[in-house]
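Subject: Predicted fold for Hemerythrin-like domain-containing protein, 220 residues

User T.R. writes:
Posting the sequence so we have a shared reference for the thread.
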Amino acid sequence: MALVHNIIIRSLNSIYLQAPHVPPSHQSAFTCYMLATWQTVHEHHRGEETSLFPAIEKATGETGIMEVNVRQHQAFETGFEAWGHWIRDVEQERERFSGQRCRDLMDGFMRDLATHLAEEIPSLMALAKYPESRLPLRRLWEEEGKAVMGGLSKTRQLPVVLLNHDVTFEGEGLHANFPPLPAPVKWVLMNVCARWNASWWAFSTCGVDGRPRELAFLGE
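User M.O. replies:
I've generated the structure tokens; pasting them so everyone works from the same file.
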């Protein structure tokens, strides 16, 4: 989960930092990158609320045990949805692209989202008090992760995950096998699917090798 959160943070930061500096010739691709990021983050939190959290409640027998996490989702939901609506309006040319407008809308949810991302990890770690035989948390997380990943487009959303995952995070190679996919599948996703909308992924924080790279548009 910490790795997923790191991907979310990196992808949103890449948008916030680059938005004011994207030239008109790249704004269409940047809008698609923003929309793909929004959809990916949205699906992650939807998967938690519809799959992971209910499964944890059922296994522990404690109704509302994940309620604090749900309330945190609700705290940033309005601002996050407003940003998503604006992105779609820009994509459909109902609104003009504006880097400052993008930042203003992101300011409306980023603080609450950051709080959630920081506090969700300890809330999950607190579940260690339940024995594995009662709460198979690793299995539940893997099942939810597979369901979410399986629902993402291989050419429109999965690259957000793959190209914002820093394989050097916490040590060289420690997380190189995340997400847990067979090597041939990951190779195809990175070297074939990620090239389908290559102009979108020019804004991501990592290259196809998973190593961090300098953002493309940071201004002077």
